[in-house]
Amino acid sequence: MFLKKIPLLILFLMVSVVSQSQNKTNTFLYHGRVDKLENNKVILIGTASSVSFNFTGTECSVSLQSVDSYEHHNYVSLVLDGKYLGKIRIEKGAVQSFPIKTTTNKKVHRLEIYKNTEAQSGNILFAGTTAKLSSISTKKKKKIEFIGDSITCAAASDSVDCDKGEYMDHHNGYFAYGPRISRKIDVDYLVSSVSGIGMYRNWNDENKDEAIMPDVYQNLYLTKDNSKPKYDFAFQPDIISIALGTNDFSGGDGKKERLPFNAEKYVSNYINFIKMLYKHNPKAQIVITNSPMVGGERALVFEDCLKKVKNAFAEDKTHKPILIFKFKPMTPKGCLGHPDVNDHKVLAAEYAPFLKKLLNEK
Predict the structure, then answer these.
(1) Which end of the chain is more exposed for a tag (fewer CB within 10 A), N or C?
(2) C-alpha span between 161 and 168 (Å, rounded)
(3) What is the mean pLDDT of residues 155-184?
(4) How far is Cα 279 from Cα 210, in angstroms, rounded to an integer?
(5) 3-state DSSP helix/strand/coil percent for the chain, to nearest 5?
(6) Which residues contact 208 (CB under 8 A, 6 or more apart)?
(7) How many CA within 13 A on the CB side of residue 7?
(8) CB atoms within 10 A of CB 17
(9) Using an 8 Å Cβ cutoff, are 241 and 147 in contact?
(10) What is the pLDDT of residues 317-341, one digit of tens each?
(11) Statement: residue 176 has pLDDT above 70
């Protein structure tokens, strides 16, 4: 994904896309759900969305701001010359400057800035850098989109001091299973995920008050805010991985009314969601997954639902046959019953060979 210095920029408008030709050279590279603004500024929206650039010299600073964040802070993760530096907290309020110092003798350094939190935690504005920029190139890679919920977001995965701080303090999107897999098998990725969301209902809602994934997916910001731009589907993934159902099967908090799981509604919504994806991504291989967090009798019902979704497209000769991937059951070690960063490493190790094999067959 890239930002050109020539008028071709207008073709890409609000959403960054991966270069469709080999070895494109740019000043900045953008990945994920992002909103590109003027003067090389960009809003990082989705989990693990990123901006990267090359620079010379031994130090620089980057300007970041937590925006649309409901009056709270946000986080990014930094990677310098391939080394993960950790998370940086961006307080609410004005643009903040963060110093970067190199630790290698390389003539040209690369800094990658990843949104660590999810779209629903608010957005992060990359407002610029003092770096002496050098050109940055990218080559055409195969692409995977990961659609999901809090598990796909890597919410609650930083499990140190779970009883302290706020929800976004325990996110670590950089180490989510999707980005992990993508780095391992060298593909470009897009994460479209929202904590608590489901295919027909959310974790503690019967779709009376809150938006479900089919409601928000086509909005760039993954909300129902019509003032925000639409997602333009320019990414065109080779594989679309859908991991939605954990929240549909959830029993909620035990306080709010929760009806029994409605398999018919889940399957119907899933089928319609895939039809929408096919409309915009006709060549994509779709993989639908179970959840490592749904076990027992519910897991059997879940698997049966996925088979019904797959079978609904059995006579479809226009698209690639839908595939089902099953994660192994997991006892999570993160906060609020979620997988932690090490659990995400396990999930990535399970799923990566399957996806790599699929890509090699394309």
Answers:
(1) C
(2) 13
(3) 92
(4) 25
(5) 25, 30, 50
(6) none
(7) 0
(8) 21
(9) yes
(10) 999 999 999 999 999 999 989 999 9
(11) yes
Q: Are 246 and 143 in contact (CB under 8 A)?
A: no
Asked if 335 contacts 172 with a C-beta cutoff of 8 angstroms, the reply is: no
| pLDDT tens digits for range 12-52 | 333 333 333 334 568 999 999 999 999 889 999 999 999 99
324, two tokens: 């089902």
How far lies 157's CA from each of 339, 345, 347, in Å? 6, 11, 13
| pTM of the full structure | 0.91
For residues 209 and 238, the model is more confident at 238
Q: Compute the distance between CA of residue 349 and CA of residue 23 in angstroms, rounded to an integer.
A: 29
Rg (CA), the chain: 20
Tokens standing for residue 157:
């995965």
Asked if 178 contacts 144 with a C-beta cutoff of 8 angstroms, the reply is yes
Mention every residue, 6+ apart, whose C-beta is less than 8 A from residue 139. 19, 22, 23, 24
